[in-house]
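Handout, section B. The chain below has 171 residues.
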Amino acid sequence: MSEELISVAKILNFHGIKGDAKLGFSKGREKQIEALEKVFVKKNNEYKELNVSAVRFHKQFAIVKFKEFQTVNDVEEFKGCDLYLSRTEVEENLDNDEYLISDLIGMDVYDEDGSCIGVITAVGENLANDLLSVKDGNGKEHLVPFVKEIVPVVDLKGRKVVVNNIAGLIS
């Protein structure tokens, strides 16, 4: 694959006996999953194209019928494997103020006065919003809610974010 691929879901298990796959995916990505036409599955360091014929949702999971899967055994072979889309396709489906985690990791974090606070080392989720994990110069990790009021600037080209460092957030 010459184009960069981004993981968008994971085959968790089969669903029923006709080769439907139960997928796990990040919350808020239902529209992207519903619009899938083809994905790539990675197994043993090789990518295989899968064509989607139907998508439905059950609880917090997607139930997907791939044209290539006819039985439970077909799905079992790929259980635990990630599903990928091209970076271009993923970026086209991002809303304003949505970013790829891989783009945020390693970005410098500054306070509103322009002082460097640290570096983003991870992005996590909680029920309310995403959290940026910021490692300061002393190696201490700080969790910063990734909301516009606290993180007003994300400069992908400049590889930096600005945080309104409210009292106690990063000290």
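Note. The mean pLDDT is 88. Compare this with the example in section A.
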